[in-house]
Write a structure and sequence with these properties.
Layout (H helix, E strand, L loop, with lengths): L1 E7 L4 E8 L4 E5 L6 H10 L2 E6 L11 H8 L2 E5 L15 E4 L4 E4 L2 E7 L8 E7 L8 E5 L2 E2 L2 E2 L4 H4 L6 H17 L6 E4 L17 E2 H7 L8 H9 L9 H10 L15 H9 L3 E4 L3 H6 L6 E2 L7 H8 L6 E4 L2 H12 L6 E5 L4 H4 L6 E2 L1 H6 L4 E5 L3 H5 L7 E2 L17 E5 L4 H12 L4 E4 L3 H7 L4
Parallel strand pairs: 3-4, 4-5, 5-6, 10-13, 15-16, 15-17, 17-18, 19-23, 20-21, 20-22, 22-23
Antiparallel strand pairs: 1-2, 2-3, 7-8, 8-9, 9-10, 11-12, 13-14
Length: 461
């Protein structure tokens, strides 16, 4: 048996290859939309991808299951659990719907389906046994049910997809699933679908895998014997659900377009850039923050491509029914497009090279230091764009907390006669917020100092 691990840092998303070297067959679990790594790994290992599975209808990225099945002709094993709202509705060459207790073989490797609802109603996990060596299972692909140090949040359907009342019922299903796993052998390895940084839980560990025995000892979810106490704990303090999660649920339910069917963005000139801004289209300036501060076109939004979870932040502001444009260096364009397509941003109408900025009109983005703010505190309205949990742990006195992704909701509530100062931990989210506010005509500056500075320079409560 061969096990390979694939990890997308920007999405904090894990997928896996399980290969039977005796028969040359391979299974891919929870593939991402960019299928090249799986094809390359299979070729290197001398395996043929014959089976594809996914644990649930994903909310945080476009699944690559349909794409990979189209490329390989592999059988696609999808959940038939949950209610009618959470049934797959797309077609592929060979789809096999599976339910709790079903089994299938990948060469000598037995895969047992476990219904593990809670994160979503249709969620399943896959228990793996290498029957050539033993009849004892080795581990479980737990998807978004069980992470290292955490369990999947049950409120995404309510927060992102607007399905009112599903958070509480999902949390109770999650409790029952945890109870089921308490009786399972501790030696089982746990292979989750996400790591630290994912919004699918609130305290995911950075270690890529664990064992069920270890999780029983240290994972807070396994320490409860009372359902209501578990529900209260699980629903408390979850991070803000990104807006684009609702779109991902829809896309992954009905099936995403194949990448080959999508248009290739073409280079456009300064006049097209001015027209895009006049039409209120979203133009993402993907250059480094310092470059944007020095010179940018008014009306563009800066989400630096090489910083952290830039894809997740872009997902907060994309209109999936509208047009998106990019401003970036040509040598970075392919990577940017691939990363945006990972969250279903398929309507990228074109791109602009930085040399069009001067012709389209130049603006600067003001920066302000913590020392400057401290000297003129009454003259500023500080907007803390961190998450609510971060804000509660300590914030600048008098700062208003509006998490970055929620900022568009508050455009009519913010003053236009005073200078707004956006602020986060490092200045990255703050700059995204400042560029968005500047696009909407606000007087704004971004706090340039890291939290280590502002927390000592400004009054904190």
């Amino acid at each position: 048996m061969l096990l390979k691990y694939f990890y997308d840092q920007k999405l904090a998303q894990a997928s896996y290859m399980v290969g039977c070297q005796a028969t040359g067959e391979a299974l891919i679990v929870d593939p991402a939309r960019d299928i090249a790594p799986y094809l390359e790994a299979a070729e290197y290992e001398g395996l043929k991808i014959t089976h594809i599975t996914e644990t649930h209808i994903h909310a945080d990225y476009v699944s690559g299951s349909r794409e990979l099945a189209h490329a390989t002709g592999a059988a696609l094993y999808l959940s038939d659990m949950g209610d009618e709202n959470w049934k797959y509705s797309f077609t592929a060459p060979s789809i096999i719907l599976v339910r709790d207790g079903d089994m299938f073989m990948v060469g000598n490797i037995r895969v047992e389906v476990l219904h593990t609802p809670g994160h979503t109603p249709e969620h399943i996990s896959f228990m793996i046994t290498d029957t050539a060596a033993t009849e004892t299972p080795i581990g479980i692909f737990t998807g978004d049910f069980l992470f290292v140090g955490d369990v999947g949040r049950p409120d995404l359907l309510e927060e992102a997809a607007g399905m009112v009342g599903t958070a509480d019922s999902g949390a109770r299903l999650q409790y029952q699933t945890v109870e089921r796993f308490k009786s399972m052998p501790g030696h089982l390895q746990v292979w989750p679908a996400h790591g630290a940084g994912s919004a699918c839980g609130k305290a995911l560990g950075a270690v890529p895998s664990s064992t069920l025995g270890y999780e029983k000892l240290v994972n807070p979810a396994f320490q409860f014997n009372d359902e209501q106490a578990f529900v209260d704990w699980l629903l408390d303090g979850q991070p803000e659900a990104p807006k684009y999660f609702a779109q991902m649920k829809k896309v992954n339910k009905i099936g995403s377009p194949l990448v080959a069917e999508l248009n290739t963005p073409q280079a456009l000139d300064a006049d097209a850039l001015k027209q895009a801004i006049a039409d209120n289209a979203l133009v993402l300036d993907m250059r480094h923050r310092d470059e944007f501060v020095s010179a940018h076109v008014p009306g563009t939004v800066n989400i630096a491509e090489w910083e952290g979870a830039c894809v997740n932040y872009a997902g907060w502001f994309v209109d999936y029914d509208g047009e998106t444009y990019l401003l970036a260096e040509p040598d970075r364009l392919d990577r940017i497009v691939k990363n945006l397509r990972a969250i279903g941003v398929d309507r990228i109408e074109g791109y602009f090279m930085p040399d069009v900025i001067e012709a389209a009109g130049v603006a600067q983005l003001p920066l302000v230091s913590a020392a400057d703010v401290a000297e003129n505190l009454d003259n500023y309205v500080i907007i803390d764009v961190r998450g609510a949990t971060e804000y509660a742990e300590g914030h600048i006195a008098g700062a208003r907390n509006i998490p970055l992704g929620y900022l568009p909701r508050y455009m009519d509530d913010l003053p236009r006669d005073r200078m707004l100062v956006t602020q986060c931990v490092s200045g990255y989210r703050g700059q995204i917020a400042a560029s968005l506010l500047q696009k909407h005509g606000f007087k704004v500056a971004n706090l340039s100092d890291h939290k280590n500075v502002w927390s000592k320079t400004l009054p904190v409560e």
